[in-house]
């Protein structure tokens, strides 16, 4: 497999930050051959890459490097990737995280996503797939460019700003991960419309986890805890059909 061909096939223009500086990615895996290959592929994208082979080392680098995305193996020799992610989130960073693991059961996927990860790739994987997934996460993060002339979307007392990635309900700021933000944006762009789990999987994740919809249920529950907690609910389940966002009545 050609690293350059795998990394650059069909992904479109290079991604940079708004100020033109390079995207920063931290790759965490204890297999040197794998981290070398990933580093080469990501650097070919024009991104700045740091690597770590252990969890504690990854935390130290993350605090200094401030990556825009993290590629994180679940199985590490000291603390596992789930613990690394928990500590990254505890530090206040909502950096998009792409999990790598040799485990391929649905339960393991959901464990990783429930812990706050944004996406999941199982080994063995193609470099092209990893790069494509990372580009998707980065585009959905604070580096994304708004696709409308007015960056603000409002439904009732809920507002979302696509430029600043700020969300407010009733004047209260709500902190969301990149994936939560993308899910909420999709719901808010389709108010009072029932969206099926299949539609949400296709729009937010661009693939369907082998047809499993559990990840949608997990992220809907995350949003409800942040958007609806202590308020009139706006996110509604339409039994047997999907989900709908509408103003509280």
Task: Describe the protein.
Helices cover 39% and strands 19% of the residues. It is α/β, with parallel strands linked by helices and 249 residues long. A 5-stranded parallel beta sheet has the order 2-1-3-4-5, with helices on both faces. The longest helix is centred in the last third of the chain and has 15 residues, at 214-228.
Summarize the structure.
With 249 residues, the chain is of the alpha/beta class. The protein has helices spanning 3-8, 32-44, 55-65, 81-90, 106-114, 127-140, 178-188, 197-205, 214-228, and strands at 24-28, 48-52, 69-73, 97-101, 119-122, 152-155, 158-161, 166-169, 172-174, 235-238, 242-245.
How far apart lie the N and C ends? 56 Å
- Shape field: globular
* Order of helical and strand elements: HEHEHEHEHEHEEEEHHHEE
Q: Kindly state the percentage of residues in helix.
A: 25-40%
> Which stretches of 5+ consecutive residues score pLDDT under 50?
1-11, 144-148
Largest sheet: 5 strands, parallel
List the helices and strands and how they pair.
Blueprint: H1 3-8, E1 24-28, H2 32-44, E2 48-52, H3 55-65, E3 69-73, H4 81-90, E4 97-101, H5 106-114, E5 119-122, H6 127-140, E6 152-155, E7 158-161, E8 166-169, E9 172-174, H7 178-188, H8 197-205, H9 214-228, E10 235-238, E11 242-245
Parallel strand pairs: 1-2, 1-3, 3-4, 4-5
Antiparallel strand pairs: 6-7, 7-8, 8-9, 10-11
Helix pairs in contact: 2-6, 3-4, 7-8, 7-9
Features:
four-stranded antiparallel β-sheet, 9 helices, single chain, alpha/beta, disordered N terminus, globular, five-stranded parallel β-sheet, 249 residues
């Amino acid at each position: 497999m050609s690293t350059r061909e795998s990394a650059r096939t069909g992904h479109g223009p290079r991604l940079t930050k708004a100020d033109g500086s390079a995207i920063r990615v931290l790759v965490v895996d204890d297999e040197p051959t794998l981290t070398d290959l990933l580093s080469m592929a990501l650097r070919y994208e024009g991104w700045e890459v740091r690597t770590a082979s252990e969890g504690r080392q990854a935390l130290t680098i993350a605090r200094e490097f401030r990556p825009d995305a993290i590629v994180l193996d679940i199985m590490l020799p000291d603390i596992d990737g789930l613990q690394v992610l928990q500590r990254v989130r505890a530090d206040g960073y909502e950096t998009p995280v792409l999990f790598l693991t040799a485990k391929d059961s649905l339960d393991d996927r959901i464990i990783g996503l429930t812990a706050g990860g944004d996406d999941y790739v199982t080994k063995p994987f193609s470099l092209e797939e990893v790069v494509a997934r990372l580009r998707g996460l980065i585009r959905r993060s604070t580096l994304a460019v708004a696709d409308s002339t007015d960056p603000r979307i409002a439904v009732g007392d809920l507002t979302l700003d696509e430029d600043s990635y700020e969300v407010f309900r009733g004047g209260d700021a709500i902190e969301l991960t990149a994936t939560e933000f993308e899910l909420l944006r999709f719901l808010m762009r389709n108010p009072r419309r029932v969206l099926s789990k299949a539609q949400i999987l296709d729009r937010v994740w661009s693939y369907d986890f082998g047809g499993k919809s559990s990840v949608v249920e997990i992220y809907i529950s995350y949003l409800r805890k942040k958007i609806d907690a202590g308020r009139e609910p706006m996110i509604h389940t339409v039994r047997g059909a999907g989900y709908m966002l509408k103003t509280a009545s």
